[in-house]
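User: My collaborator sent over this chain with a note saying "see what the structure looks like." That's all I know about it. Can you take a look?
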Amino acid sequence: MNRDRTTLLLIMPPQLGLLSGFAAGLISLANYVVARLPAVHVEIIDLSEQSLDSVSCILDKTLSQTQRDRVFVGITATTASYQSALKISQILKNRHPKTCVVLGGHHASADYKTILARHNDIIDLIVVGEGERPLCELIEKYPAIDTVSSLAFCLNGEVHRTQTADQLTQAELDSIPITYGDNGLIGTPGKFDHVTYVSARGCPLQCAFCAVGNDRIRAKSIPAVIRDIDALLEMGFSRIAIEDNFFAHSPKRTRDLCSALAAVKERRNGAFAWDCQTRVESLVRTGTIGLMAKAGCDAVYIGVESFNPDHLAYLNKTAQPDKYLRQLMNQVIPSLLAAGVDCYLNMQFGIPGETTEHQRHTLSVLERLGSLAVNHDRRITIFPQLHVVYPGTVHSLSGVREGRFAEDVFESFTEWESRELPILFWLGEHFAHGTGGIPEGIIKSELLRAGHFEIDSNAVFSILDTLRTIEGIPGLGVFHYGKYLVPKPAREQGCLVC
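Assistant: Without extra context I'll predict from the sequence alone. Here is the result:
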């Protein structure tokens, strides 16, 4: 038995009721650590489609095989999977108390003070922000955790946070493979029948509802992107979702990348297509949509959010709502339809203060867009998003400041939601980003202020009526998420792998 090596287990927790898809960030973490600390044994454990009943068996089997002196376990958590991550942590500490449990991901980064104050018995450390450098430092310097960057921990009843690590450079991003070892892409490698690929990290914008904004963009080089795309094509994937937070952020990079992708398309005889998510401000640039279409882009997700100027201001989506909407309606959508690129509009429903007038205006605009789509013999698809509040966002901070909810509200809300499976599945089936965050527009506000949660059925029925009306508009469609959710395991009891 070799007791000199260190083991790092990277875990994606169960995702019951959430959209299928593996957290590719774990692959990046694993490759980064192994490249710099080759003596460390790194293993990725995908529990996304497992029941909580099966988790203990899987973890016991894995840890019994490692038998190392030092075992670090990194768990990634969104707000929607936070309660699952806590349960994994509890199981680990109950059965393998010497493991060092590290929590990461957007939720952990945003709410680390509350998490450590409540759960420092089962969570030892939290990585705040990008995780590659801190994980390497932690393995090298442990137990001197105060010398590790971007780390939060509880000491003598107080929460401490160390200095933020430098973000990865372009050269470092380029060096990280998109697969790990012999395991390929691991789990479900994408969603909506596409394989997911990220060519750039960060988004400099500051939308009030977004948990990942206000961060400078760091992009892979064009040769590295093409290398990765070729690798995905060689693996048999032909539909690629480029899930950068803000595709086409840079005019020059957009031109260069589209030119390179067009060459791949020609070299592959057109046997691949890709989609992306971007903004009106990028697509309004002259020639951009044509370049994307020539390069194989067959669909674009636009985070429109709302057609109501006051809602756009509330969401801090744009400083010029009227101009934004004119560009969307008169330039961007017509150009996409003319270019044969599918137009997907992400729209938020259940925005606080939404009135029947807001809804009438939305339907009026959508009828105009439907007519435009029919005239081009095309179809515009609406991707419903439920307006929710995530920790660390402008809306979260203002909610606490104004007394709409308590600072630690995500502890009780996510626990409540995880118990209310019918609500959880209803949210997942109808909306992207509907779970985890607090849906202020459909929660009874007086109860929310008191730390209790109850769905306002009138608000729910109003949203459903609006969605049904949209589906009846010629030229429009409403996307249904249901078939892409992680289902309940076939066996609720016992281990699925034993």
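A starting point for your reply to your collaborator: Residues 490-498 have pLDDT under 50 and may be disordered.
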